[in-house]
Amino acid sequence: MTSISFASSQVDRQILGGLATDSPWLAILEHAGLAIAVLNADFDFVYVNRHFALANGKTLELLRGRNYFDVFPQTRVEQVFRRVRSSGMAHVHTARPFLTNVSPTGEPGDWNWSLRPIGDADYPLTGNARHLLLSIQAAQFTRESAVRHTPELRETVLDGFWLTDLTGRLLDVNETYCRLSGYTRSELLQLTTQQLTAGPTCPMAAIAGDGLPPAGNERVLTRHRRKDGTTWAVEVTTFHSPDSGGRLFSLLRSTGEQKRDEVRLRAHDRLSELAASADLEAHLQIALESAIELTGSTSGTIEMLPTRPPAAGQKAASVLPDERRAESDSNERVLADKHPAATESSERHNEASTPSREMALPIVHEEKVRALLKLANRWGGYSSDDIANVSALAEYAVKAFASRRAETALRASERCLRSLFNAMTCGFAVQEILFSADGIPYDYRFLEVNPAFEAIAGLTRAEIVGQRVSEVMPGIDPRWIERFAAVAVSGDDAHYDDFTSDLGRRYRVTAYRPSGGCCAAVFDDITALWQDEEAIRRAAMVFVHSRDAILITDAATHIVAVNGAFSEITGYSSEEAIGRTVGMLKSGHHGATFYAALWSQLSEHGFWQGEICNRRKNGETYLQWLTITAVVNEAGVTERYIGVFTDITRLRDFGQRAEFIACYDPLTHLPNRTLLNIHFEHALSKAELMNARLALLVLDVDHFKEVNERFGYESGDRLLTAIGERIKSRLRDGDTLARLPGNVFAILMEEVENADDAAVLARDLLEVLATPFRIGGAVAELHVSASIGISISPDDGSTLAILLRKAESAVHKIKAQARGMFRFYAD
C-alpha cells in the first residue's frame, strides 16, 4: 500500500470542512474496501468510516471524538504517529500485526496500513501536521471485495489497480495506475499484463485454461514498464475467488515510493539529532549517505568548495570505504537482480538512451555554490527522478542547517533581549485588556513584567503575572485602564506623564500595541525629576514675582539675568542690563577699600551682606540692603554670583507693611486667624448686648493636595484665591471671611436668628463652589467640592478656639463618611 495521495486536496478540504450528505466522497469513503480514519494533531478521531469501526469491533459513536491511544494504547505505534506529525512525512507499514485478532470481517489477519499528514503536498519534509489520515487494509483481499468490484471501489483503492481475465488482458484500471505508468486508461485497456511487465509475473496471471485456481492471493516483486520505456519496481498482489467470474483482481504498489519515504524519514531523524554546532558539511554527509542508500550507488563524495583557493593536495572527503568504491559493474548488476526495488525509476531498454552513470549536484546556500554532492556507479544510471530525489535530500539538509543556525542566532538574540529586559531600569509590563460584553474596557491582566516593574509594584513576578490590575493595585485610577485600552484598540502609540496615587509616584509612560487586545508599557519613574523641575519652577516663580531685586552675573560680573523688581528699583530694563557689568550701578560713594573688603569676604566665605549706596538709571542715589552669594561648580570654581537687594529707603512704610502682614493672609489678602479673633471678640460683645447668636462655618476644600501634586503649587494658589473670591460674593456686609492655614476658610456670621440661617449659607456655598473653576495656565477647568462644619455660639461655646475646634470636628466626621456636604457639630 502506498501513502495516501488520491485527489488529496479535494478530499482534505471536504473531510476537514465536513462532508455533505450528498457528497460523492462520503459514499466512496463509506463503501471502499479500506478502513479510514482522520485524526487531528492531538490524535483525536475527527472522521471514521464504517469499515474502520467494523474492523475494530467498535461503534462509530464510541470512536468519534475519542483519542486514538485511549482506544488502542500501543506505545510503539504512538511513537510512529508522533514522528509523522513532527516530520510531516508519511509512514507506510506492510503486512505487520497492527490490530491484534481483528479484521474488517471479524477474522484475524495481517494488515497493511499507512499514516499521512494532510497538507498541500504529498510528501512535505518539514512542518507540523494539522491532521493525519490513517488507512488500513487487510493483507488478504476478501472474497466480498473481489466480487463486489465497483467503479467507486476502483478509484478509492489507494494503490494501482488491475482487473484482468485469466489470459492477462486488462479489463479495468484505476487512475492511480494510469499516473504511475504514464498511459491513459483507454491505452491500457488495449494491452496485456505481459506487455506491461518487465520482470516475473504472478503465477495466477499465467493460467491459460487449466481451470479456475482456488480462492486466495499471491504476491510477487517485479518491474513494470512505463509508456516512456523506463521501468519501476512494483509489488503485485493478485486476488481470486471462485465467485469472481473468472477475473483476477490485482493491487500494484510502487516500492520505490515507500523506500523514498523511509530514507527521507531516517534522514530527518538523523539531521534532527545533530549537535547545534554541526557545520554544513556534517549536514550534507547525512544527505549523501541517504542518497547512496536511495539510489543504490556504490560511491559518493561531498566536495566542499573553499571561499579561497584550496591548499595544495586538498581532497574531497568520501563517505564510502575504498572496497565499496571498487565494486565492479557486474557485482552491481547481480545486486540489482536480487533486489529490483533498489533500482526503480532509472532503467531504459534502449541502450542508446541509457541515463548517466554519474551525478554531480551543486549545493547552493546563501546564493552561493558551497559544495558538490557526487554519486557514481549506479546500475542503470541516474534518471530525472533520481536527480529530483537527491536534490530534495540535499535541499532539506541545507534548510536544516540554515534553520539550526537561524535558531541558534534567534536563541542568542532572545538571551540578549532577555538580559536587556531584565537589566532595564525602567519598568516594563505587557497587559491583556479585559472588555465587558458591551465592549467597554474594565480591567487588564498582566502577562509579563520585568524586575524593574516588580520593584515599582513592590511585588514579585509570581504575584503579578496572571493577576488583574484591580487585584494588584486596588486603588488604580480608571484612566490608566482607559488609556491602555485605547492603545490596544487603535494601535497608536501613546506618550504621557501621570501621577498614580496608589503608588504615590509620577511616571513617564510609553505605551504601544504588541499584538491585538494587548498593550505593552514602559514606566520611567520621574518623581525625582518632576520634584526637581517643580523646585526649579518654584525658584523661577520666586525670581519673577519676588519684590526684592535679583540679578545673576557670570564669574566676571557680567549681568546674565535680572527680575522685574530690579528694573523697578534701578530703572534699567533687562535688555539694558544684560551683558553689562555691575559697575554700572556704582554711585561713587564707596572707595576702593570698601570694595576690596567686599570681594575679600566673598572670595573667602562665598557670601557678603550689608548696606551699599548705588545709583539708579535717572542718576538718583539710594540705599540697598544687598546680599551676594557665590555659586561654585563641582571643582570649586566660581561660575555665578547672585545678588539680592532691597531698596531700604522704603523702610518708612515698614510700619504699615508689618501691620498688614500681621493681620492678613499674603496670598488671598483675606483676614488671618489673628484678625478673625479680633472680629469675633467685637461680634461676641455685640451679640451679648443684643441677645443674638453667632455662627462659625469652617470650610475645608476637598482633595486639594491632589491639585497641588497634579498641577503644581501655582495652580493651587490661584485656586485658593478664586475660592475666596466666590465665598466673599455670597456673604453679607457684616460677615467675616478669613483664611486659615492650608486649604481651610472660616466664615463668621453675626446676628444669626437660628441655625437655619447658617444652613442656608452652607448650601449656598456648596452650590457656588460646584461651578468649575477656570484658573488659567495649563488647567482648562477644575471641579472642586468642600466639606463645611458649623458651630453655634453660645450653644457650642463662647470662644473662637472652642467654636473652631467643634466646627473642625464636624468637618472630620463628614470626611469619614463622605464629602461635599455640611454638618452641625450638635448633629
Descriptive report:
The structure is a single chain. By secondary structure, the chain is an alpha+beta fold. The chain has 30 helices and 29 strands. Strands 2-1-5-4-3 form a five-stranded antiparallel sheet. The chain has a five-stranded antiparallel sheet with strand order 7-6-10-9-8. It is elongated. Residues 1-17, 95-109, 120-128, 139-148, 206-212 and 308-354 have low confidence and may be disordered.
Total of DSSP H or I helical runs spanning 4+ residues: 30
User: Helix fraction?
Assistant: 25-40%
Q: Rough shape?
A: elongated
Question: What is the residue-averaged pLDDT?
Answer: 78
Q: What's the story with the biggest beta sheet?
A: 5 strands, antiparallel
Gyration radius (Cα, Å) is 49 Å
Distance between the termini: 97 Å
| Low confidence ranges | 1-17, 95-109, 120-128, 139-148, 206-212, 308-354
Q: SS-based structural class? A: alpha+beta
Number of strands: 29
* Beta-strand percent range: 25-35%
Features:
disordered N terminus; 39% helix; five-stranded antiparallel sheet; alpha+beta; 25% strand; 827 residues; elongated
Structure at a glance:
The protein has 827 residues and is an alpha+beta fold. The protein is 39% helix and 25% strand.
Topology summary:
Blueprint (H helix, E strand, L loop, with lengths): L7 H10 L6 H8 L3 E6 L4 E4 L1 H6 L4 H4 L4 H4 L3 H13 L3 E6 L14 E7 L13 E8 L4 H5 L3 H6 L3 E6 L4 E4 L1 H7 L3 H4 L4 H4 L19 E10 L5 E10 L6 E8 H19 L6 H16 L3 E6 L12 E2 L3 H4 L3 H10 L19 E8 L2 E9 L7 H40 L3 E9 L5 E9 L1 H7 L3 H4 L4 H4 L5 H13 L3 E7 L4 E8 L5 E8 L1 H19 L3 E6 L4 E4 L1 H7 L3 H4 L14 H14 L1 E9 L5 E12 L5 E10 L6 H10 L9 H18 L2 E9 L2 H8 L1 H17 L6 E5 L3 E9 L2 H16 L15 E8 L6 H18 L4 E3 L3
Parallel strand pairs: 28-29
Antiparallel strand pairs: 1-2, 1-5, 3-4, 4-5, 6-7, 6-10, 8-9, 9-10, 11-12, 11-14, 13-14, 15-16, 15-19, 17-18, 18-19, 20-21, 20-24, 22-23, 23-24, 25-27, 25-28, 26-27
